[in-house]
Design a protein that fits this description.
Blueprint (H helix, E strand, L loop, with lengths): L1 E6 L9 E5 L6 E5 L7 E7 L3 E6 L11 E7 L6 E5 L24 H11 L6 H17 L1 H6 L9 H24 L9 H18 L8 H14 L5 E5 L2 H8 L12 H12 L4 H22 L1 E3 L2 E3 L16 H10 L5 H15 L19 E2 L3 E3 L29
Parallel strand pairs: 8-11
Antiparallel strand pairs: 1-6, 2-5, 2-7, 3-6, 3-12, 4-5, 4-8, 9-10
Helix pairs in contact: 2-5, 2-6, 4-8, 4-11, 6-9, 8-9, 8-11, 9-11
Amino acid sequence: MLHTLNIGNPGPAPTRAIEVVSPPGSCIQKVSVAGQSSAPLIVMRRFDRWAAIVFDRNVPSASQDPLRIHIDSTSAIAPDWRLVQSSPAIGPWDSDPNARVSLAPPVAWMTIAELEARSMEHAPTPSEAAWARYFRELDLKTNPTLLHERGRATGCPRPQPFESLVKVMAGLLLERLHARVTGGQMPPAPPTCETVLLSALQLHLLEKHIGGRNRPDWASLVARAFASFASGRLLLDIRAARSAAAEHARSRSSNGGPNSAFVFLFAEFAAAAIDSDVDAEVWSKLLPRLVTAAEIYVRCYGELSNGSIVARRLGEYSDMPVRSMPPDELERLLAQHSDESANDAKLRLNGLARASLLPNGWSDGGAYVHHPDGCWFSGGTVEFPCQQAQVLARAPQTVDREDSEPGRADNP
């Protein structure tokens, strides 16, 4: 059903961003801003029912004609909307003066960061909100691009050394993954110190957002979190206008979903940690689940032929899912390998890597990501597919941990 929203700013604080929230269980299918002086630079949507727009200029004041935004949704009830200002808790920072594309105020980093955090408040279940927060915080603390661009938001006072550590680790893990694809000799495990640091970070964040490892269902909860991530269910779908500033902002966002076949490196890190005897017991439990998450990613983001996986270059995998996976199929895959040993999981990782990835095109480490045409829009209309029609089967409805805090996502 089509709804028309009249958007104006009655207050003194200027803003270029609004969020739109449709009723629970509904899906926002199209956002249109047409025939007006303000044009959208960024349009994003998460969990089907939440959307946000960042304009190229301020929302009109009360003395001006309001913006008219058309929202096409599956609900007969008109969505709510509200203005969004950058978070004062973090404060402003300047864009890198040496960046190839300088960011003008219309796409301020803090506005994008604030929208990312607000989107997680509208997850279908508390568990999915917690999972989304885990991947966002992990992204902010390990993604080299975000460490560089958003260093002040990560809570890391000296991001450069850690940024270098992450890049080195990624390169070493890619070498191991390439050996699985080619059947060549496996390179040695990464240095122990680096493995200890990254293992501690990941396990700390998993306990913070998903729960303590003493829970009997902890490994299953982690499995569902990674499965939802790998299927694109947690994705913040960000579309950019065809402008340098808009695309720069999109590529520097934490979109909550896999950006490329680098998703294999979660399993590769677990295998490397086991080989190095770093938290080997916990990574042995998680490795089968992380290999399954990689398979789910390939099936949702890759190319299939008669249901079989088609091998592609590492960098040809998109950051936009091609298809969704029904909850019952996702659950079947998770259950199929839940009791698998670490050695069997490594063998399965070998087979999955060979089936999914071509041995050529690794000279650049697969650093580029294929962006399909749907990542950009022209004019003022953006269409989205509905992906959240069903709640993940048997996903827990509450997050039971002693240090859980209701409400907003952390801004590390």
